[in-house]
Amino acid sequence: MLGFFDYTVWLTYMSLLSASFGIMVTLNGGGHPYMGIIFLLICGLCDAFDGRVARTKKDRTEVQKKFGIQIDSLSDLAAFGILPACIGNAMIKVCPTVYDIPPIKGGRKLDIYTSILFYTIILIYILAALVRLAYFNVMEEERQKTETGNRKCFRGVPVTSAALVFPTVLLVQFITPGDITPVYFAFLLVTAVAFVTDIKVPKPGLRGILIMCGIGLTELIAFIYFFIKFAGRG
Predict the structure, then answer these.
(1) C-alpha span between 8 and 102 (Å, rounded)
(2) Among the residues of the chain, which ranges form H helices?
(3) Per-residue model confidence as pLDDT tens digits over 79-91
(4) Between 20 and 30 A from 111 (CA), which of 4, 64, 98, 155?
(5) How far apart are the C-alpha atoms of 124 and 79, rounded to whole Å?
(6) Its pTM surpasses 0.85
(7) Does the bond joining 103 to the residue before it have cis omega, within 30 degrees of 0?
(8) 3-class DSSP assignment, residue 201
(9) At what angle do helices 206-231 and 162-171 cross, to 10 degrees?
């Protein structure tokens, strides 16, 4: 059988499956951005530890290491590139106010210029995520030819930041009756630019990762709570 299936890649596979479920949910019918966000948070939690778990296996071959790098990037493109874009697409189709979730009732029609703007931002975001991931892979391979150990900082904002940025934006929807769709797309564009901007971002250590996971887990619980709460109204 082609590929590798030991425990070192399980979290990466789980992240991809979560992203796939999220994409299907957001593209189904009118789409459901809040369910998509829940799957995005799950992807973030899986990604936070997949590398550390993989490094616990000391006898990995070079092929296994390279395979892990490749599937990690491919999974990240689906989870943090395509899924946030699909969530934005779902927000275009519906009016995601707290009074409509879930189920989301009815829909809406944006004017042609706003629709073109939003879809253009979606395309820019996906392209920026792809470029960021490909560039990181190439530069990391070059770095490992001359350096040993893990890198101390990233160049450009990692695509995995999407797992905290967009859930935080959508949480605002639960405390305001207004439609935050334009705000979501503003963050989508800013994040896309941050992906490909040559800035140094310190790589978080274990403590930083645990803090971010704590934030992500809190947001996940909040979304599930709000989802169940408003489902009872439907």
Answers:
(1) 37
(2) 10-27, 33-54, 62-76, 83-93, 112-146, 162-171, 181-196, 206-231
(3) 999 999 999 998 8
(4) 98
(5) 16
(6) yes
(7) yes
(8) strand
(9) 40
